[in-house]
Design goal:
176 residues; mainly alpha; 8 helices; 2 domains; 70% helix
């Protein structure tokens, strides 16, 4: 009965392969191939490969089609190294997000403005709010720019804050 696929029978060879994979798991393909060639030249590895080769020949495995060394390299590269790398827990990189916080007085001002003009659409209401309270908006913008925020981000967050406040206030009146 011929063997088409095989698992390394020699446990010592398998251990050596795992050790090799562990030592060389971060090498690129060219470095890995060079290291593998040097590894094959070691006397104990030669003996282990020879014994595995003898076993496979007894089992009618066709070593002429694909060499045992090629099979070992592929096993190390595509199985052992991949397995080791996938078992390393990946640290979740959390991007530091600094929140834009508006002054309490500015939030109260927007709240009062929305409360007194809640019959308009939020986009129109925001535009008129910016015109009427231009000084307060500029003070907020200047203060946040000093903290390192970009003007476009500040304006978009200000608009978002205004619309969120409008939404929550209109929802409260609808729920009651």
């Amino acid at each position: 009965m011929s063997i088409y696929r095989f698992k390394i029978q020699n446990e010592q060879l398998n251990e050596e392969m795992i050790d090799f994979a562990c030592l060389h798991k971060y090498e690129d393909k060219i470095q890995l191939r060079d290291s593998f060639k040097l590894w094959l030249q070691q006397d104990n590895i030669k003996q282990l490969i020879e014994s595995e080769s003898t076993y496979l020949k007894r089992m009618d495995y066709n070593l002429k089609q694909t060499s045992l060394e090629s099979k070992l390299f592929k096993s190390i590269k595509y199985y052992h190294i991949k397995k080791m790398i996938s078992n390393i827990p990946k640290k979740e990189i959390k991007k530091e997000t600094t929140r834009i916080c508006f002054d309490k007085s500015f939030l109260i001002l927007t709240h009062q403005y929305i409360q007194s003009n809640h019959n308009k659409k939020p986009a129109q209401l925001y535009d008129t709010f910016q015109i009427i309270h231009d000084n307060e908006c500029n003070i907020q913008k200047k203060c946040l720019m000093e903290k390192g925020f970009h003007e476009d981000i500040i304006l978009s967050k200000m608009k978002k804050m205004f619309k969120n406040k409008y939404f929550t206030m209109t929802q409260k009146t609808l729920d009651v």
